[in-house]
Each structure stands twice: as C-alpha cells, then as structure tokens.
Amino acid sequence: DTGVSQDPRHKITKRGQNVTxxxxxxxxxxxxxxxxxxxxxxxxFLTYFQNEAQLEKSRLLSDxxxxxxxxxxxxxxxxxxxxxxxxxxxxxxxxxxxxxxxxGSGTRLTVV
Amino acid sequence: GNSVTQMEGPVTLSExxxxxxxxxxxxxxxxxxxxxxxxxGEGLQLLLKATKADDKGSNKGFEATYRxxxxxxxxxxxxxxxxxxxxxxxxxxxxxxxxxxxGDGTTLTVKx
Lengths: 112, 112
Description:
heterodimer; A: 112 residues; mainly beta; 7-stranded mixed beta sheet; 0% helix; B: 112 residues; 6-stranded mixed beta sheet; 12 strands; 50% strand
C-alpha cells in the first residue's frame, strides 16, 4: 500500500492557462474524491467517483473544472482558463464505502 | 444541507494539560463522524471515527463520543504532548451522498 499519490506537488501557472492534476488512489479503494482547501478553511468538496462513474459534482464548481477517472483507477482534474481565485491546495482522497478517507499530500496551485 | 462547526482556535496548552476541541454538526439522516489531523508539513490523516450514536472512537490517546442528542463529537485527550501540535478537523460523512463535510479546523499548539 503506497498511499494516495498526487502529481505535481506544486504548480505555478499564468492566468488563463489550463492545468491538469493527477491522483493515484489506493488500489483497493473504489471511491475517489477531489477537494479544494484554502488557508484557514477546511477541505471543500469538488467531486467524487465510485469506480469510473462520477456520482456528484459540487454546484460551486464552474464549467471550467472537469474530472475523469478512466477505468476506475487514477483520476485527473483539469482547470481550464485559470483565474487567480483558483489558487488553492487541491486534495485527492480515496476510500471504501463507509470508511474514513486516505488523503494524498495535495497539489498546491498558484495562479499569477 | 450538512454542516460542521468547530470551536475557533488557536488553542495553546502546556504539555500534560487536558484537551477538548468542540465540534457540533447539522445533518439529515445518520452520518458517520470523523476527526482528521494535519501535522505541520504533512497531509490530512484520519485520527478516529464513530459510525452511530453513543459510539466512541479512539486512537493515540484521543477520544470522541458520537452524541446524537446534542449533535456533537468533541475531541478529548487527557494529557497532550508537544508532538500533538497540529490542525484538527472534524468531519461528517453521509453514506448516501458519499461525500464528507469538514469543519474549518482548530490549530493546537502544545508548549513544553
């Protein structure tokens, strides 16, 4: 069990550029989640998958955000036309239904 | 919708002091309740959980009891150590919905 891996750890991008983050969950976990966290706040739900199906997407998420989990394994989160307000820590977590989360270390996005 | 309210921090204690971090929640149905901890420079990790009323979760000397009548899940430890210095997040998970809702975290600093 190598835990939940996220790549990259840090990303600095210019406003208007597209960025993509990757998450590799624990292989036995069928659920995968994306959260966003800003300084002084708790993680805020973005979306989650059960196997390859995206079961819920936050209403706070604009159309610039999209996530995929092909074949129910790794997942990607893409942000198109980034804005300064997108700067945050993006967290991935996985679990089996009913269990607590195992979080990755996160990807810190800075939009300049 | 679901929500979690944690006592505001930061909390500063001397080593061996008693710790309580308050957490109350609002939820429909019967959620599971969790405490996560984030040590300096590390990702969030599950500390303990409780899945039904009157359950007590415990780990590393920390305890929390699921109180349905007061909708609370307060975190306690009888004697804190410097190594317990971290940010603590209370969370609830609605199994039907899948996602978790987090509080904003409470920063604990333990001084020798």
